[in-house]
Design a protein that fits this description.
alpha/beta, Aspartate Aminotransferase, domain 2, 13 strands, single chain, seven-stranded mixed beta sheet, binds pyridoxal-5'-phosphate, Aspartate Aminotransferase, domain 1
Length: about 450
Amino acid sequence: MLDWTPEELRRHGYAAVDELVEFWAAMRESPVRRVAPVEELEERFGAPPPELGRPFDEVLLETSRVLLPSTMRVNHPRFFGFVPGPSNPSGAVAELLASGFNVFAGTWMAGGAATVVERGLIRWLADQIGMPAGAGGVMVSGGSLANLTALIVAREMHRNGKHPDAAVYFSDQTHSASERALRVLGFEARQLRRLPTVGDGAVDIEALRAMLAKDDAPFCVVANAGTTSTGAVDSLPELAELCRERGIWLHADAAYGGGAVLCERGKSALRGLERCDSLALDPHKWLFQPFDLGCVLVREEKLLTDVFRIIPAYMNDVYRLNAEINFCDRGLELTRPFRALKLWMSLQHFGVAAFRKAVERGFELAEIAEARLRENTSWEIVTPAQLGIVTFRHKGDDALQKRLVDAMLADGYAMLTSTHFRGRAALRLCPINPRTADEEIRETITRLEKFAATA
Ligand SMILES: Cc1ncc(COP(=O)(O)O)c(C=O)c1O
């Protein structure tokens, strides 16, 4: 029951891989998004499942030719919106294997090599950042869970974490994932100190100092190591110093920007990240992994187990065998997939040097975009290329910027999104897909110029 013969597995598996080959091969020539009305999709895919099944060939083709293409291609070389998921094919094959073997990566007993792979990669990431030897972490689904996990640790471990007036400081550019995490942790609006930013979007440290002077129970600073809107990095060395002096927990949201530590420019932009007490970093963003893969790192590995470990009777055997590396002790998940496999396989296959070059390419592409925008005085650079993001405006009002996003969506050639910075709408390109050609960046801007003439 619910089984296939080896021949069926081979035939259907190969057929699925063939579909994947088509998808990747045709990507560049395909629109970034194919739009289908919600009613049509509802009718086709939202209905309850059938009582009796149907041939897999039919299900597969419907999935790969209709269902999956009715989603946005965030790994498309011309997807520049939000934070792209450039992904890589070897990571996708790793996912097939990890779920095919159905690895349980929650405990050493069940996960074995999977736990060693995960621990090794966490150590490697911590080393890339320059964290001290006692640092450790856990892999989770993404930035939202990574920030939540780190903030749980902070709240449990910091002397002011549970103070009724515990105050948390972050800038008006901080991703909503942290605010949501704080909300579910029970922090009230009156405890959240939203700070203004200076320059291209880094937190105003003087405003932070002024706030700190007024608070009795300063608890945590959430620093940005690459804001989602403009790629800004807060002054981490200054924040680290201030937090050390005042005994405040320093958490950094490096979900987007953290991958940049692989290259020299990124390392230099993120200087000070190694001094944080905790941080979130998403390999499913700028380390080119398929969804999902986020990572929490903490300066003192032991704090994770102090916070999360509970040993129930039915798990006694797990801890008799090995009490050291049970990843279920480091976060909220017991049953957890072997998420780390895709990062391991793709690093083994392509090598770190290829990843380093791919990250560097993101810096370069954003600069190419900025240079092209500067060729036409109809554009205003809102924030220059920083950490792979450039923001800009066309001459005209806020509504025009949004019409340009809509026009590009309708066109389908590329995808970009808008944001709001210092009270004004801005267009935003985040070209971190290493497969993007220089000309595709320039053509995207040329098309925007054409749309502006009629929008
Ligand atoms: C800076 C930052 N933090 C957190 C997140 C949330 O991460 P995820 O969507 O992986 O949960 C994002 C997502 O884009 C982000 O850019």
